[in-house]
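Hello again, I could really use a second opinion on something today. I've been staring at a protein lately and its backbone has me curious. Can you walk me through what the C-alpha coordinates say about the fold? Take your time with it, there's no hurry, and the full record follows here:
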Amino acid sequence: MNKGGIYCIVNLVNGKQYIGSTKAFSYRFSKHKSDLRKNKHHSFLLQRSWNKYGGDSFEFRILEEISDPILYKKREQHYLDNERCEYNIDKIVNGGMLGKKLSEKAKLLIGEANKALCGERNHMYGKFGELHHNYGKKMPQNGRSGKDHKNYGKPSANRKIVLQFDLNGTLIKEFPSLKQASKELDIHKNYIGACCKGRYKQARGFVFKYKEDLLKNN
Protein backbone atom coordinates (compact mmCIF):
# COMPACT_ATOMS: atom_id res chain seq x y z
CA MET A 1 0.00 0.00 0.00
CA ASN A 2 3.06 2.27 0.14
CA LYS A 3 3.18 2.41 -3.63
CA GLY A 4 1.65 5.26 -5.61
CA GLY A 5 -0.55 5.73 -8.65
CA ILE A 6 -4.22 6.19 -9.47
CA TYR A 7 -7.02 5.25 -7.08
CA CYS A 8 -10.76 5.62 -6.72
CA ILE A 9 -13.30 5.77 -3.91
CA VAL A 10 -16.43 3.87 -4.94
CA ASN A 11 -19.93 4.13 -3.52
CA LEU A 12 -21.07 0.50 -3.44
CA VAL A 13 -24.72 1.54 -3.36
CA ASN A 14 -24.94 3.62 -6.53
CA GLY A 15 -21.59 3.04 -8.26
CA LYS A 16 -20.52 6.69 -8.16
CA GLN A 17 -16.84 7.31 -7.61
CA TYR A 18 -14.05 9.76 -6.89
CA ILE A 19 -10.73 9.46 -8.77
CA GLY A 20 -7.36 10.75 -7.65
CA SER A 21 -3.60 10.19 -7.72
CA THR A 22 -1.08 9.84 -4.92
CA LYS A 23 2.53 9.01 -4.15
CA ALA A 24 1.44 6.69 -1.32
CA PHE A 25 -1.89 4.84 -1.38
CA SER A 26 -1.92 4.04 2.35
CA TYR A 27 -1.39 7.67 3.39
CA ARG A 28 -3.91 9.07 0.91
CA PHE A 29 -6.60 6.57 1.83
CA SER A 30 -6.13 7.38 5.52
CA LYS A 31 -6.32 11.11 4.80
CA HIS A 32 -9.56 10.75 2.82
CA LYS A 33 -11.16 8.67 5.59
CA SER A 34 -10.03 11.11 8.25
CA ASP A 35 -11.47 14.12 6.41
CA LEU A 36 -14.72 12.33 5.65
CA ARG A 37 -15.18 11.22 9.26
CA LYS A 38 -14.55 14.79 10.41
CA ASN A 39 -17.06 16.06 7.83
CA LYS A 40 -14.50 18.35 6.17
CA HIS A 41 -13.66 16.64 2.88
CA HIS A 42 -12.86 19.03 0.01
CA SER A 43 -15.41 17.29 -2.24
CA PHE A 44 -18.79 18.23 -0.81
CA LEU A 45 -20.40 15.73 -3.20
CA LEU A 46 -18.41 12.84 -1.75
CA GLN A 47 -18.91 14.16 1.78
CA ARG A 48 -22.66 14.38 1.32
CA SER A 49 -22.89 10.79 0.09
CA TRP A 50 -20.59 9.56 2.86
CA ASN A 51 -22.89 11.18 5.41
CA LYS A 52 -25.95 9.69 3.74
CA TYR A 53 -24.82 6.11 3.12
CA GLY A 54 -22.16 5.66 5.82
CA GLY A 55 -18.52 4.69 5.58
CA ASP A 56 -19.28 0.98 5.13
CA SER A 57 -20.86 1.77 1.76
CA PHE A 58 -17.57 3.01 0.31
CA GLU A 59 -14.55 1.11 -0.95
CA PHE A 60 -11.05 2.41 -1.70
CA ARG A 61 -9.56 0.78 -4.79
CA ILE A 62 -6.25 0.98 -6.62
CA LEU A 63 -6.79 1.52 -10.33
CA GLU A 64 -3.18 1.62 -11.46
CA GLU A 65 0.22 1.43 -9.78
CA ILE A 66 2.77 3.83 -11.29
CA SER A 67 6.50 3.75 -10.55
CA ASP A 68 7.33 7.08 -12.19
CA PRO A 69 5.76 10.02 -10.26
CA ILE A 70 6.03 12.21 -13.35
CA LEU A 71 3.23 10.17 -14.93
CA TYR A 72 0.78 10.57 -12.03
CA LYS A 73 -1.05 13.65 -13.30
CA LYS A 74 -1.11 12.47 -16.90
CA ARG A 75 -2.62 9.12 -15.97
CA GLU A 76 -5.05 10.74 -13.53
CA GLN A 77 -6.31 13.01 -16.31
CA HIS A 78 -6.72 9.93 -18.53
CA TYR A 79 -9.03 8.33 -15.97
CA LEU A 80 -10.95 11.56 -15.39
CA ASP A 81 -11.55 11.83 -19.14
CA ASN A 82 -12.58 8.21 -19.65
CA GLU A 83 -14.22 7.06 -16.43
CA ARG A 84 -17.24 8.24 -14.50
CA CYS A 85 -16.13 10.46 -11.63
CA GLU A 86 -19.28 11.98 -10.18
CA TYR A 87 -17.63 12.98 -6.89
CA ASN A 88 -14.79 14.95 -8.47
CA ILE A 89 -15.58 18.67 -8.29
CA ASP A 90 -12.89 19.53 -10.82
CA LYS A 91 -12.42 17.25 -13.84
CA ILE A 92 -9.13 18.92 -14.80
CA VAL A 93 -5.98 17.90 -12.91
CA ASN A 94 -4.63 20.92 -11.01
CA GLY A 95 -7.47 23.00 -12.45
CA GLY A 96 -9.90 25.33 -10.72
CA MET A 97 -9.43 26.73 -7.21
CA LEU A 98 -9.41 23.39 -5.39
CA GLY A 99 -6.69 23.42 -2.76
CA LYS A 100 -5.49 26.91 -3.68
CA LYS A 101 -5.26 29.72 -1.13
CA LEU A 102 -6.50 33.19 -1.93
CA SER A 103 -4.17 36.11 -1.34
CA GLU A 104 -5.20 38.69 1.25
CA LYS A 105 -5.78 41.19 -1.56
CA ALA A 106 -8.08 38.77 -3.40
CA LYS A 107 -10.03 38.11 -0.19
CA LEU A 108 -10.43 41.84 0.33
CA LEU A 109 -11.73 42.38 -3.21
CA ILE A 110 -14.25 39.55 -2.87
CA GLY A 111 -15.39 40.95 0.47
CA GLU A 112 -15.95 44.40 -0.99
CA ALA A 113 -17.85 42.95 -3.92
CA ASN A 114 -20.16 41.06 -1.59
CA LYS A 115 -20.79 44.15 0.53
CA ALA A 116 -22.00 45.96 -2.60
CA LEU A 117 -24.87 43.48 -2.83
CA CYS A 118 -26.06 43.84 0.73
CA GLY A 119 -28.41 46.20 2.54
CA GLU A 120 -29.05 49.65 1.14
CA ARG A 121 -26.42 49.14 -1.56
CA ASN A 122 -28.55 46.46 -3.20
CA HIS A 123 -30.65 47.89 -6.06
CA MET A 124 -33.71 46.00 -4.75
CA TYR A 125 -33.37 47.26 -1.16
CA GLY A 126 -36.73 48.44 0.21
CA LYS A 127 -38.58 47.64 -3.01
CA PHE A 128 -41.59 45.50 -2.21
CA GLY A 129 -45.30 45.68 -2.81
CA GLU A 130 -46.17 48.54 -5.19
CA LEU A 131 -42.52 49.61 -5.30
CA HIS A 132 -41.43 46.32 -6.82
CA HIS A 133 -40.89 46.49 -10.60
CA ASN A 134 -43.07 43.39 -11.14
CA TYR A 135 -45.96 44.61 -9.00
CA GLY A 136 -49.29 44.03 -10.76
CA LYS A 137 -47.70 42.11 -13.65
CA LYS A 138 -48.93 38.66 -14.55
CA MET A 139 -45.97 36.34 -14.38
CA PRO A 140 -45.45 33.66 -17.08
CA GLN A 141 -46.73 30.22 -16.13
CA ASN A 142 -43.58 28.15 -16.52
CA GLY A 143 -44.58 25.65 -13.87
CA ARG A 144 -47.16 23.67 -15.79
CA SER A 145 -49.18 20.84 -14.33
CA GLY A 146 -51.83 18.36 -15.39
CA LYS A 147 -52.44 17.99 -19.14
CA ASP A 148 -50.26 21.01 -19.86
CA HIS A 149 -47.17 19.28 -18.51
CA LYS A 150 -44.83 17.84 -21.17
CA ASN A 151 -44.70 14.47 -19.37
CA TYR A 152 -48.47 14.19 -18.85
CA GLY A 153 -49.60 10.64 -19.61
CA LYS A 154 -46.07 9.26 -19.77
CA PRO A 155 -45.10 6.52 -17.30
CA SER A 156 -42.59 7.54 -14.66
CA ALA A 157 -39.27 5.71 -14.38
CA ASN A 158 -40.53 3.95 -11.24
CA ARG A 159 -43.41 2.41 -13.21
CA LYS A 160 -41.43 1.28 -16.26
CA ILE A 161 -41.00 -2.46 -16.72
CA VAL A 162 -37.42 -3.47 -15.92
CA LEU A 163 -35.70 -6.49 -17.48
CA GLN A 164 -32.84 -8.25 -15.71
CA PHE A 165 -30.21 -10.06 -17.80
CA ASP A 166 -27.05 -11.96 -16.98
CA LEU A 167 -23.77 -10.82 -18.52
CA ASN A 168 -24.34 -13.17 -21.47
CA GLY A 169 -27.58 -11.41 -22.38
CA THR A 170 -29.93 -14.12 -21.08
CA LEU A 171 -33.17 -12.78 -19.61
CA ILE A 172 -33.47 -13.67 -15.93
CA LYS A 173 -36.57 -11.86 -14.76
CA GLU A 174 -39.05 -9.10 -15.58
CA PHE A 175 -40.01 -6.58 -12.89
CA PRO A 176 -43.10 -4.36 -13.03
CA SER A 177 -41.15 -1.35 -11.79
CA LEU A 178 -37.76 0.00 -10.84
CA LYS A 179 -38.83 0.08 -7.21
CA GLN A 180 -39.81 -3.59 -7.26
CA ALA A 181 -36.53 -4.63 -8.90
CA SER A 182 -34.61 -2.69 -6.26
CA LYS A 183 -36.61 -4.25 -3.44
CA GLU A 184 -36.26 -7.86 -4.61
CA LEU A 185 -32.59 -7.66 -5.62
CA ASP A 186 -31.47 -5.39 -2.78
CA ILE A 187 -29.78 -3.04 -5.26
CA HIS A 188 -30.35 0.71 -5.00
CA LYS A 189 -32.91 1.83 -7.57
CA ASN A 190 -30.67 4.69 -8.73
CA TYR A 191 -27.97 2.18 -9.58
CA ILE A 192 -30.42 0.00 -11.58
CA GLY A 193 -31.92 3.07 -13.25
CA ALA A 194 -28.49 4.32 -14.31
CA CYS A 195 -27.80 0.91 -15.85
CA CYS A 196 -31.14 1.00 -17.71
CA LYS A 197 -30.20 4.40 -19.15
CA GLY A 198 -26.82 3.12 -20.30
CA ARG A 199 -24.73 5.07 -17.79
CA TYR A 200 -23.36 1.80 -16.45
CA LYS A 201 -22.75 -1.42 -18.35
CA GLN A 202 -23.84 -3.53 -15.37
CA ALA A 203 -25.00 -3.32 -11.78
CA ARG A 204 -23.89 -5.92 -9.26
CA GLY A 205 -23.09 -8.42 -12.01
CA PHE A 206 -26.35 -7.98 -13.94
CA VAL A 207 -27.48 -5.96 -16.95
CA PHE A 208 -30.74 -4.01 -16.70
CA LYS A 209 -32.88 -2.53 -19.47
CA TYR A 210 -36.23 -0.81 -19.69
CA LYS A 211 -38.55 -3.06 -21.68
CA GLU A 212 -40.01 -0.17 -23.67
CA ASP A 213 -36.51 0.92 -24.75
CA LEU A 214 -35.76 -2.53 -26.13
CA LEU A 215 -39.06 -2.59 -28.00
CA LYS A 216 -38.30 0.80 -29.55
CA ASN A 217 -34.92 -0.37 -30.77
CA ASN A 218 -36.23 -3.62 -32.26
Q: What stands out?
A: The longest helix spans residues 25-37. The chain has a mean pLDDT of 79.
